[in-house]
Write the structure tokens for this entry.
Amino acid sequence: MIDLDYEEVVKRIVEKTGKPREEVEGLIDEKIKELNGLVSKNGAAHILANELGIVMVNPSGKISVSNIVPGMRNVEVTGRVVRKYEAREFSTEKRSGRIGSFLLGDNTGIIRVVLWDDMVEYLDKIKEGDTIKIVNAYSRKNRDRREIHVTNKARIIIGVEETIEMPSPRRVSLAELNGGEENIEVYATIVQVFEPRFFEVCPQCGKRLKLVEGSFSCPVHGVVEPDYRMVLNTFIDDGTSSLRLVLWEPQILKMLGISRDELLGLKDNPGAVEELRQKLLGRIIRVIGRASRNEAFDRVELIANIVELDPNPPEDWIKPSMDEDSTLKEERFDLGQ
Ligand SMILES: [Zn+2]
């Protein structure tokens, strides 16, 4: 539903509440301020309508990604699968099930799509680059990000004949990042490489394992032979600022062009880690991803979706000078994603 334009939404709020137009517009402006300018005027109007319990129905039933705001029902959106993530099982006190996710983009933006239970099977059917249509999903907010949620009430239609123009990532300098920026592009130099961190996961569901009485145990599958995931933190500098770049396994594998076995060979192998560090230090890197505020450490981090080593930097980019003492430091960091 809901791709009504701003005028239409304001008109409906005025009709339904009986409030004067000026007051409604004032409330919309407040909403924009409250959300730190992260929503468009139209988006804020929709949020306000939603909060006032006013149902917005658009007969055409379609919405573009940038107009999706938390709290919408019957969301219908067409876009391209930008990136798929691995599914996992979960269990809470309330229930257990499966969850999977991917990023969906159209010419207005990119949004995370979360699949629940049986809908997770769609992850095997769709490929990155496919154009798909999602019908009857709902939207919500998860931390500072918008998400589309797909339960068995929703439908996914694969192979939609529609050309989707993707938005190019916005090029930014590191100094201008506050956290919360999506689809951004950064050119920088790798100035520090931290010790890769390996952690134990369940080979069946990918969930983090806990050490229980000397055995690795999955909350769902019990004691299992652990599989490993790796995360590599680096520091990058673009001359305006430096910040932490978090690289997860898929990004590392693509960036280095190595196999998973080779990557796992770094575990408990200081020589190979030092080789990797030497290989990466001082290299120019192009990163497309998002900036996130790590509340625990009160800092902004860059989370990579796509990384490229030795790209052709844009003409206006100046390589920053390397810090002389960029040494490898052991460091603890949280693995929360
Ligand atoms: Zn498991």
